[in-house]
Design brief:
Serine Threonine Protein Phosphatase 5, Tetratricopeptide repeat, mainly alpha, 3 domains, three-stranded antiparallel β-sheet, 12 helices, single chain, 348 residues, flat
Length: 348
Amino acid sequence: MIDYWLLGPIEARDNGRAVDIGGPKQRALLTILLLSANEPVSRDVLVDRLWGECPPAGAQHTLEVYISRLRKALESAAGSQVVLTRPGSYLLRAPGERIDVGRFECLAGQGRRALAAHAPVRAAEDLREALALWRGAPLADVGDEPFAQAEIARLNELRAGVIEDRIEADLALGRHEDVVGELEALIAAQPLRERPYQHLMLALYRCGRQAEALAVYQSARRVLVDDLGIEPGPGLKRIERAILEQDVSLDPPAPRPALLASAPAVGERPPQGAVTRRRRMLAAAGAVLTVILALLTGGSSGPRGSTASLTAGPDTVGVIDGSRDLLSEVVTGDGRPGWGSSVNWCRA
């Protein structure tokens, strides 16, 4: 099965091996067919998108030649029909998951839904995976072609939104220090997008840089007023007000304890080693509790002054006088100490 790559240079790969799809016009033809994958594209539309208003003489025949070459390259690699002829049109058959644009849109949607469901860990994973599909400018080999402009703009807008979603997930995970530099670069590249300003203000505030966070608001307001003649939107105004009031809703999320992070999920059995260690700890705690209870409940003991006659027998606790290294007391209780031996020792 062939994989197609449009988020960067145009490529077709068969099990990771590049397929030779020919020169610029055949790459453009493949791109046009992929952007309408599994749907017929008429011959007239293909001619118009390949040559614009000035097609060469015999453009229909030239199109047939390009189709034939593309079909041969793809189908020899796939071992099955890929480019199909329909009445007055052509169709390229490709599952959506085999086109990087389709995978990107699917992962972006999953990440956005996870973010809305307050699952930032899953959201960050899906959104990072989506962004990792990008290898450069979208449709890089046909970036100057008129037919590609609308799709390039759409894909760039989608990517910008996914980056902002991923940063929001990172902020929800307490990674505010990690995103400050990235947000500053995003704002420098696209100064009219308000959401990065909001994220940067929040990140700086959580880093203890309240004055800088408020300066970001003033900078955003100047750009919006000077370039567009509009005031900042409700989101920017709301976060400025919250910073001035030091609203607790801006505080970073509480760190998750390591013990909770390592605990097994509900319904999941802990590892065998963990069970063994837990049992040993419980046994030790039980033994210590037995000794304490024996002492507090008045278990029988010999007099401290007559240590020579004392003997620690089964099911007893021997108390040693540390200054003389002598047995000074024997405590007996109602139960076994539980240490795996019938006699236990402690130093007085």
